[in-house]
Amino acid sequence: MNRVCFGLVSLLLCVLFLARNVGVLADPDAAELARRQAVCEAVAVECAVLSYRGESPAAAESFARAVARRSPEVLSIGIRNADGRLVADTGGHTQHWADATDTATPTHLQAEVPKADGSAWARVEVACRPLPFSGAWRYAGGSMLPLLAFCSVGWFAATAVYLRTVLRKIDLAEARVVPDRVKATLNTLSEGVVVLDRHGVIALANDAFGRAVGVPADDLRGRRASDLPWSAGAVPISEAEHPWVKVLRDAAPQTGHVLGLRAGEGKTLSVNSTPILADDGSCRGALATFDDLTPVEKARATAEAANRAKSEFLANVSHEIRTPMNAIMGMTELVLEGGRLTGEQRECLGIVGESATALLGVINDLLDLSKIEAGKFDLDPADFDLRAVLDDTLQGLALRAHTKGLELGCDIPADVPDVLVGDAGRLRQVVVNLVGNAIKFTHAGEVFVRVRVGERSAGVANLLVSVVDTGIGIPSDKLQAVFEPFTQADGGTSRKYGGSGLGLTISAHLVRLMGGEVWAESTVGRGSAFHFTARFGVPSHSHASLSLSDFYLTEGGPVLVAEDNLTTQRALAGMLERLNFQPTTADDTPSALAALEAAAAAGTPLPLLLVDATLPEPDGFVLAEQAVARRLARSVVVLLSSADLPRDVERCRTLGVAHLRKPVRRVDLARVLQLAVDPTQLTGGVPTPAPRVTPPAGPTGLRVLVVEDNRFNQLVTARKLERWGHSVTVTADGREALTALADRSFDLMFTDLQMPDMSGFELAAAVRRSEAGGRSRMPIVALTAHAMSGTREECLNAGMDDYVSKPVRDDDLHAVLRRVAVPAESGAEDTNARHRQDTNDVRTPADATFDRTTVLERVGGNRDVLRQLVGVFYQDCNTQMAALRAAIGNGDADGVRDAAHTVKGMVAFFSQPGATEAARALEDIGTRGELSGAASRCAELARELARIEAGLAEFAPPPADGWHLGFADRSEAETVCPAEL
User: Fold this and answer.
1) Residue 685, phi then psi, degrees to nearest 5
2) In angstroms, what CA-CA distances link 158 with 8, 16, 38, 149, 305?
3) How far apart are CA 729 and CA 962, in angstroms?
4) Measured between alpha carbons, how far is 688 from 597 in angstroms, rounded to an integer?
5) Other CB atoms closer than 10 Å to residue 729's CB: what's the count?
6) Domain 382-537 belongs to what topology?
7) Which reaction does it catalyse (predicted)?
8) Quick check: bond before 253 cis, omega within 30?
């Protein structure tokens, strides 16, 4: 059609061009030239009149100017006398006439004015603008071009509209473009067929397609297929995404597309489209076929609805069953613990308890499966300690393994991050399922968990966890089937070993939720290995292992590990190496005794001995007895047993050795190592109990919430309250505190006043607002280092009940507990106590020595607790001093204030008023924003911190050689304060 339109337009242009050049059409340029000649002749006539009057040619200048003003095409008019001198000029004529020739042109016209006698009197010269089209353009069209362009566009549009209208009305059947027999054949097909031209216009559609779209097939001809209301599901899609459009564009087939048609009741259609190619290979159109999937979609929706109904029913039933099952199990345990039962009754109730536990496990699996099918199984990510989670998980499974005589252990290399971000509960569930299965199907040997770290990127770690056993194995053709619901490797095993067959199915789904996959490898009769990968986040903030945060570990020494199981031996050795100790291994008692004797003969008896109780004859108890009796181990002997059997525990107590249950948890091993590096806590090879702390008479068993952003002060306050029998919950800021208060109730809240985001005053105000709705009033006590006059009044005005100044002293803390939790009987005691708090910042002079007695009293004489506090103090105070120096260097007054405030709260605990005063001065400097004296005050604070460090050395040495609290390096410390260091 476009070619026809272009041909007709070209023919029209040729006719117009010929008419223009033969003079049939008027020439606008000729009319313009006639106007210019008329201007020239008008001035010449005026000059002729003046010549008959006998006037000079200059008298015609005013007339020439008037004519020039009325003629925009005129540039200038000039009049020359008989001598050729210019006597009249309308302006710039000399310049405009510079290119003039002797002959007249469209831009330079002239006329001679004679006298009465016929002699020359004057000559009129008119300079004009060039014509719009001149020269060759005059013959190519000239000023006719706009007319030609208008005619071309208008004619093309009119012709295109006309032809399109005519072509649409052409009946292809009558024109015999598509034979009737072809149309009849296409109409017999159950799938829709559409033939499209290269513009996407429907040239032919069969009856099946017409029924699918709800329009008669004949009425679809001439319409664009993309104009129909297509969608992808419930979302409309653009025309470029239609498969036939892609075919026409790329000349390549498009198959497997599923589109929705929103016309009428709505349809779901499967679309395949192929190009129609010309002889030269160009795409001339497209053929599209449509299969109606609506019945299939309806059937699938019905099945999914039924499945959801089944899952919801199963979830509800499982939940309803769990409630009475918990009651059955709880009452069974109470009766068993009562003690007034016959042997037969106890046996029967034991069977009831075991059966109830097994039934509850099946119910839990069914509930998890129903959640999976209902799409409500989600993860709850949070920071967790990987090693602690796996240690605790295996401890819960240890009894089942050790009852069957199996070795159970875990190996996590040092390159695996301690702290990860993920759902620890779901990870534990997967491990319990895999290890539980391994224990169930293993009769002898070992079950071991191995963790390896794979590809790591910024903030993400991919773990590979393997559970390896020496059990019965799985046939190769059943390795995939075991992950299907209600399926075990052998149908007979479900009766022999029990179980619902859901554990691996749920585990596989959990692993997929954690971004990994699960698979199994096995050899019948030799054991199995179940592997799964999982993706976890790695926290951006760097901190130590959560499970070891309460232990201060220093550089260790040599350790002897006597263990006959090589897998467990390697795991223990790796764990010791990561805790900075140097392990030596032995496989039996004779080789272990030889190593101990060699070390004792060399004058360096080993400080720690780890002995497996089940060593080959002679067993580990004999080795431990020999080591203790002959003093072959300098400090600690630890017996490792597979169960906490009463006879084993009693034998350890008799021998005077420590006892750990296998698999050994890292936190338990760290506690033993801590005793090994601090022999002052040991007597005869066993720990000396900490001094018993008897609190003064007063309230006990309170639920206390401690809100404190400083980790050191958190430990101090929590340890004191826990020693007196109170339940303590610690939060790091006000927002966490409000969340804790919304979840449960507390009898008392201690809150720091200066915290990030929300201060203690703002927290107290928020709590009081929440109590306005009828909630019972909870006492609030402030923890503050600002024990100045007026602080108590400020706290009371903010809605608090009392306050305790830092450092927190036992008598002050217990006095406020009596005042707030139990109304005081005597007002004199309250007044005296508060007076002590208002004045407790007036202490010993700044140059006083380190008061170890006062510091020990503040932890109830417990050196173990003090060691933990000192470890935290070293880490946090050094961090804050680095932040303080950086803030001073950057001129950050707020940073100086915040860091100094944190240091002040920590050093006050050690009764060093010099350090406290230096920190307070820096805090005031930061508050005022005048940092001129900050550097000297920082150096003063560093000297005071060095004194504290020297005093704390007997409780816990600094973390590393050359490390000094408060200084950037050793040379600075020796220069500033060599005497104390």
Assistant:
1) 90, -5
2) 11, 18, 43, 14, 58
3) 37
4) 27
5) 18
6) Heat Shock Protein 90 (3.30.565)
7) ATP + protein L-histidine = ADP + protein N-phospho-L-histidine
8) no
Q: Which residues contact 83 (CB under 8 A, 6 or more apart)?
A: none
Q: How many CA atoms lie within 13 A of 870 on its CB side?
A: 29
Is the separation of the CB atoms in 97 and 108 below 8 Å?
yes
Tell me the Ramachandran region of residue 473: left when phi exceeds 0, alpha when psi lies from -120 to 50, beta otherwise.
Answer: left
Half-sphere exposure of 935 (CA within 13 A, CB side): 4
- Contact partners, residue 476, CB within 8 Å, separation at least 6: 522
Q: Does domain 299-373 have CATH number 1.10.287?
A: yes
Distance CA 73, CA 32 (A): 9
If you ran DSSP here, which 8-state letter would residue 841 be given? T
How far is residue 71 CA from its own chain's centroid? 79
CB 717 within 8 A of CB 688: no
Quick check: pTM over 0.85?
A: no
DSSP annotation of 689: P
- Structure-token pair, residue 426: 């779901």
Which two structure tokens, joined as six digits, stand for 162? 């006309």
Secondary structure (DSSP) of 536-554 = EE--SS----GGGTT----
Which CATH code fits 172-292?
3.30.450.20
- The DSSP code for 608 is E
Q: How far is it, in rounded angstroms, from Cα 136 to Cα 159?
A: 32
Per CATH, the architecture of 1-169 is what? Answer: 2-Layer Sandwich (3.30)
d(CA 871, CA 42) in angstroms, rounded, equals: 115
As a whole number of Å, the end-to-end CA separation of the chain is 100
CATH classification of 556-687, choosing from 3.40.50.2300, 3.90.230.10, 3.40.50.720, 2.40.50.100?
A: 3.40.50.2300
From residue 761, give the alpha-carbon distance in Å to each of 380, 405, 783, 800: 33, 59, 11, 8
Mean pLDDT by 10 residues, the chain (981 residues): 70 70 64 84 86 82 87 88 85 85 83 80 87 57 63 73 67 50 74 85 84 80 83 75 86 84 73 85 85 79 75 63 62 62 72 71 67 67 86 80 84 87 87 88 89 83 92 81 62 48 79 89 88 88 50 64 85 82 86 84 80 83 80 74 66 76 80 63 37 49 86 76 82 88 87 83 88 80 65 78 72 77 42 39 42 68 72 80 86 86 79 79 84 82 81 73 56 40 33
